[in-house]
Amino acid sequence: MDDPSSAPKPAGERTLLEGLIHYISVLVSYKWLTLTITLTAAAISVAFSIMSKVLPPEKSPLPNLYTAASVILLQREEGMSLEATLASLGLVVPGTTGPGSAGFDIGQLAIRVVKSREFLDTLLDDFGFYTKYNLSREHKTSARQMLLSTSSFDYDRTTRTLTISYTSIEPVFARDMVARMVELLNEWFLTRGGTSKQKQKTFLEQKLKEVSADVSRLEDQVKKFQETYGVLRVEDFFASQSQILENLRSQYRLKEIEIQNYMKFVKIEDPNLVMMKSERDNLLEQIKKVESGFTNPSGTISPSKQDLPDLAQKFENLNSALRIQKNIFEALSQQYELAKLSVENEPVFQVLEAAEVPDVKSGPSRGKICVVATLLALVGSAVLSFSLNALKSRTKEPGTLRRLAGKIK
């Protein structure tokens, strides 16, 4: 029986070893082409790398890049200690949900701030980007994208640290840019964002102004009331008016008795009787005047007896409102002093590593560029060798030249 392995193979079918030998032979046949292309690419990449390193950074096609970075520790948000204190006064700090409010991430807020248009525009103006890179102010979006493309913001939730970095061909410029970013971020938190303690302090300042204005307004109303009615307390005025009326009525009764007794002895109207009747009528007029109310020559008002309850209630309401506002002002003042001490002692965030001038380039890796370029040239030359070999093989097949000639005709 014949060995199957000795059977003839179909045309064009090769073993793996035969195929490998075939490809190696093709590469050997075109070794000078492969070596020439590979060495040329290597020489060009090395020369390009050397030129890019020797030329000034602003003129080099591939200048050295330097990255400056700063690491800041974001403080953990604490609950509003003011809520419990002001709850009894009916006051609530707006925009707070208590400790451990879900969904809030101060790190993401910080990144959102540094990527905001206002933040980026401030940096563009501070460092003269438009003049430095010959940009038009009408294309602000392009300038912002240019600034963001060279900046990096990395937030680590585990350690609550935010790394702000900037890459530039100028080491000092990169350091200054990062330092300014940290400074602007701190200013934003202090003025508009802030931690819960900073928000508490701002809220207290606003409420103190409002309560102080209310206290001043109520004090003016109480003072005006007292000046109008000439008393310090309505109760004192009520007692004084009651005493005056009692005295006038007593005098009126005595005068009436005196007139009646005098008329028993006198039958005609003599001057004494006329005078006594005049005094009696005057007393009656004074009683009516006190009861109906009048304005004194000094400008103070003596209210009627019917108006006294309403005035007493009004005066009591003013004093009650004034006492409440003063109590609120005192409580807020204490909290404000504590809040000032707390905010001054605890910064918005802590700078763990300040930006410094980088002395080692962060890129580019010219060695890797040369290696990659050489490898790509080697692969390309191999593909070209196989293509040329395939084309050469096809031209040697019978009838190939005749078909090509026919196509040309």
- Main-sheet strand order equals 2-3-1-6
Largest sheet: 4 strands, antiparallel
Structural class: alpha+beta
Low-pLDDT stretches: 1-11, 78-102
Question: Rounded to an integer, what's the Rg over CA atoms?
Answer: 50 Å
Approximate strand percentage: 5-15%
What is the total number of structural domains? 3
Number of helices: 14
Give the topology.
Elements: H1 16-29, H2 31-54, E1 66-74, H3 82-87, H4 106-114, H5 117-126, H6 129-132, H7 140-149, E2 151-156, E3 161-168, H8 171-191, H9 196-229, H10 234-265, H11 271-292, E4 294-295, E5 301-302, H12 308-345, E6 349-353, H13 366-396, H14 400-408
Antiparallel strand pairs: 1-3, 1-6, 2-3, 4-5
How would you describe the overall organization of this protein?
The chain contains 14 helices and six strands. It has 409 residues and is an alpha+beta fold. The protein folds into three domains: 16-63 and 364-391, no CATH class; 66-92 and 103-194, Bacterial polysaccharide co-polymerase-like (2-Layer Sandwich), CATH 3.30.1890; 208-329. It has a four-stranded antiparallel β-sheet with strand order 2-3-1-6. A two-stranded antiparallel sheet has the order 4-5.
